[in-house]
Amino acid sequence: MTATPSDDVFSTVCLCERLRRATRVVTRLYDDALRPLDLRITQFSLLTVLAKNDELRIRDLATGVLIDETAVLRNLRPLIDRGLVAVKPGADRRERYAALTSEGRDVVARAAPLWKAAQKHLKARLPSGVWDAMFRGLPTIARIRAIGDLTTDRRGRLRHPAQPAGHPLGARRSRAAQRP
Fold first, then answer.
1. Which of 43, 71, 166, 168 has CB atoms 3.0–4.6 Å from 157's, for a disulfide?
2. HSE on the CB side for 128, CA within 13 Å?
3. Are 112 and 168 part of one and the same domain?
4. pLDDT tens figures, 118-139
5. Does residue 5 form part of some domain?
6. What are the percentages of helix, strand and coil residues in the chain, rounded to 5?
7. pLDDT tens profile 139-159
8. DSSP code per residue over 99-113
9. What is the pLDDT of residues 41-51, one digit of tens each?
10. Which domain holds residue 28?
11. DSSP per-residue codes, 132-180
């Protein structure tokens, strides 16, 4: 018989790991609540942001929710396919704008009570004061955007100020720079 590890085996002093663990649990709770409408909380969050705007440039949407454009598009794709979100090109061919369709507004209206129920359930299960402390503290963490002196280049990739602006962390060199 295999012994089950105790909780202290998995304890950590790493804030990132603690946040990730908590996020997985909270995400699962909201995803379960929204499942009757075939939505995930990541999609519902984008829908609610779009519901507050007539249309929004996808780059601005990504910046506002603090995820990269690729992840926004990956989360929007099923919503576009279901007819909940419409995407149109901007004046610049690289720009795209997203907006809720009338079907999307209907789904947001139907999902809101499910989301509120999940919110109420989670709040009720937390010790007194924790809910308010998280609402005060988590936005501060989100505003940090990058720990220490790290900044982002124009594509949103992290780089350290000591690196030249043309050499962000993880970026590949251009083809011209690769030629002998």
1. 168
2. 0
3. no
4. 999 999 999 989 999 998 888 8
5. no
6. 55, 10, 35
7. 888 777 644 545 666 666 655
8. EE-HHHHHHHHHHHH
9. 999 999 999 99
10. 11-144
11. HHHHHHHHHHHHH-SSTT-EE-TTS-EE-TTS-TT--TTPPPPHHHH--
